[in-house]
């Protein structure tokens, strides 16, 4: 059983640079989510895909952030012109369809971003 | 809008003692309820969830939680703490009503559990 994979696990970047994170969900899951977690806080929802369609976006997702899931499989989250406030762990998650919002959501191990 | 409150950002128990982590939610309709555990530098793992049916839910690693509608609570318990239970625990909810936002999990701020030998 391969779980949700995220790459890279850690990224240190200079302020103003662009970064991209990749997520490979569990293979039979067609729902994919991105969350952000800062130190001492619970994860916060960023965006949600059903197959390749991006169906929901949080207002936390500023115009510097863009997420894609071009073929309904892996997803990327790009942050342009990074700021120090973007430093956080970015969590990807996936779930099967059917069963509504009570389905179990499976999380990856996260991608840590440090902006210096 | 839904919200989750976890009382106590840090709880310490002795090994073998009862673990009680508190979670209260605010929602006009009882939501789906989840507890996740996070070990250092790792993602989140589901411990248990309540969707419907029996209000006492058993999960992995000996944990259980009881949904109490009248108290809007979903507290997590374990009769006897092990050293390996030391981690951060998050309570989360999702809206069971179909519509925008219903697939989002709303998390509490977490409770860090320390187990003293």
Shape of chain B: globular
What is the helix tally of chain B?
Answer: 0
State the share of residues found in helices of chain A, binned by percent: under 10%
Distance between the termini of chain B: 41 Å
Structural class label of chain A: mainly beta
Structure description:
The complex is a heterodimer of chains A (116) and B (117). Chain A is mainly β. Chain A has strands spanning 5-7, 10-13, 19-24, 31-37, 44-50, 53-57, 65-68, 75-79, 88-95, 106-107, 111-115. In chain A, the strands form 2 sheets. In chain A, strands 2, 4, 5, 6, 9, 10 and 11 form a 7-stranded mixed beta sheet that branches. A 4-stranded antiparallel beta sheet of chain A has the order 1-3-8-7, with no helix packed on it. Chain A is globular. Chain B is mainly β and 117 residues long. Chain B has no helices and 12 strands. Chain B has strands at residues 3-5, 10-14, 19-21, 24-26, 32-38, 44-50, 56-58, 64-68, 73-78, 87-94, 106-107, 111-116. In chain B, strands 2, 5, 6, 10, 11 and 12 form a 6-stranded mixed beta sheet that branches. In chain B, strands 3-9-8-7 form a 4-stranded antiparallel beta sheet, with no helix packed on it. In chain B, strands 1-4 form a two-stranded antiparallel ribbon. Chain B starts with a strand and ends with a strand. The chains are: A mainly beta (116), B mainly beta (117). The interface between A and B is medium-sized, with 26 and 30 residues.
Provide key terms for this protein:
heterodimer; A: 116 residues; mainly beta; seven-stranded mixed β-sheet; four-stranded antiparallel β-sheet; 11 strands; 0% helix; B: 117 residues; six-stranded mixed β-sheet; 50% strand; globular
Secondary structure topology:
The complex is a heterodimer of chains A (116) and B (117).
Chain A: E1 5-7, E2 10-13, E3 19-24, E4 31-37, E5 44-50, E6 53-57, E7 65-68, E8 75-79, E9 88-95, E10 106-107, E11 111-115
Parallel strand pairs in A: 2-11
Antiparallel strand pairs in A: 1-3, 3-8, 4-5, 4-9, 5-6, 7-8, 9-10, 9-11
Chain B: E1 3-5, E2 10-14, E3 19-21, E4 24-26, E5 32-38, E6 44-50, E7 56-58, E8 64-68, E9 73-78, E10 87-94, E11 106-107, E12 111-116
Parallel strand pairs in B: 2-12
Antiparallel strand pairs in B: 1-4, 3-9, 5-6, 5-10, 7-8, 8-9, 10-11, 10-12
